[in-house]
């Protein structure tokens, strides 16, 4: 398994840009709710694997800003729960079982020019303060992997394995679920302080935070699922491999 990428600390200019982009009436939202006692807890979740954007032509003044700062508060657009909340295409969402979905695969794509002109009034809420930085407001703002991967795909996989609403073809036995939970709890004594939370049993999966789901995907999951052989664990291994591969390419 490759080692996780090492993040370079922000320099003075990046810290200034980051503090200016945050809303003035809100404090930064840390990973954990308690008072931070080690550097990992002071890190925003989106900055765990940041994607940088460069602007400016003078190398001496060129600055990098973390795309994780570009949240909904600073983008001035509707959230992913809105009917026109997709930040990549112009289609109107469909509410399916209390979930906003965007099923059309050939919808018209948004462009940086249309974003700056605000042509889709149903998509924009306020004027985005980042339009003057030269960033491509569509291609330069990646999707939020915390909701898409951790709280989305990983949680869905867990429900397919253990939940009662999934198909019997993908569900694991209660004995296998107990063994996996036992292994997760056994790992709590070996989790270093860099991890904000310790593993919990599968019975508490609905209360797992995004950082716990990320920990399961990248670190503890491959260990506790080593002896579980089924179709859905193969999908998990593929997802985990893709996740490491993508970030290995970004940081090389």
Q: Would you mind describing this structure in some detail?
A:
It is a single chain. The relative contact order is 0.11. This protein has 7 helices and 4 strands. α4 (145-162) crosses α6 (210-224). The chain is mainly alpha-helical and 252 residues long. The chain folds into 3 domains: 9-69, no CATH class; 72-141, no CATH class; 146-250, no CATH class. The strands form 2 sheets. A two-stranded antiparallel ribbon has the order 1-2. A two-stranded antiparallel sheet has the order 3-4. It has helices at 12-21, 72-75, 112-117, 145-162, 174-186, 210-224, 231-250, and strands at 52-55, 63-66, 94-96, 99-101. The chain is 34% helix and 6% strand.
Question: What layout of secondary structure does this protein have?
Answer:
Blueprint: H1 12-21, E1 52-55, E2 63-66, H2 72-75, E3 94-96, E4 99-101, H3 112-117, H4 145-162, H5 174-186, H6 210-224, H7 231-250
Antiparallel strand pairs: 1-2, 3-4
Helix pairs in contact: 4-6
Radius of gyration: 20 Å
Q: Overall pLDDT, averaged? A: 74
Biggest sheet strand order reads 1-2
- Count of the separate structural domains: 3
Describe the main β-sheet briefly: 2 strands, antiparallel
Low-confidence stretches: 21-72
How many angstroms separate the termini?
16 Å
Strand content: 5-15%
Helical/strand content category: mainly alpha
Q: If helices are DSSP runs of H or I spanning 4 or more residues, what is the number of helices?
A: 7
Shape field: elongated
Number of strands: 4
Helical content band: 25-40%
Order of helices and strands: HEEHEEHHHHH
């Amino acid at each position: 398994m490759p080692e996780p990428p090492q993040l370079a600390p922000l320099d003075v200019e990046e810290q200034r840009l980051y503090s200016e982009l945050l809303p003035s009436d809100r404090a930064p939202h840390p990973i954990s709710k308690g008072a931070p006692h080690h550097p990992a807890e002071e890190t925003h979740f989106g900055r765990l694997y940041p994607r940088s954007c460069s602007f400016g032509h003078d190398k001496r003044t060129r600055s990098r800003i973390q795309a994780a700062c570009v949240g909904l508060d600073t983008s001035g657009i509707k959230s992913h729960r809105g009917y026109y909340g997709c930040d990549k295409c112009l289609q109107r969402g469909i509410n399916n079982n209390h979930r906003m979905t965007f099923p059309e695969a050939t919808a018209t794509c948004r462009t940086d020019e249309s974003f700056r002109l605000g042509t889709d009034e149903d998509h924009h809420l306020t004027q985005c303060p980042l339009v003057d930085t030269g960033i491509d407001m569509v291609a330069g703002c990646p999707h939020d992997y915390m909701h898409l991967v951790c709280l989305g795909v990983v949680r869905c996989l867990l429900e397919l394995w253990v939940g009662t609403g999934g198909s019997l073809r993908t569900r694991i036995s209660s004995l296998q679920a107990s063994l996996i939970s036992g292994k997760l709890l056994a790992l709590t004594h070996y989790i270093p302080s860099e991890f904000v939370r310790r593993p919990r049993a599968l019975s508490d999966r609905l209360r797992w935070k995004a950082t716990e789901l990320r920990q399961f995907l990248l670190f503890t999951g491959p260990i506790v699922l080593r002896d579980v052989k089924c179709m859905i664990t193969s999908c998990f291994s593929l997802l985990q491999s893709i996740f490491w591969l993508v970030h290995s390419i970004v940081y090389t």
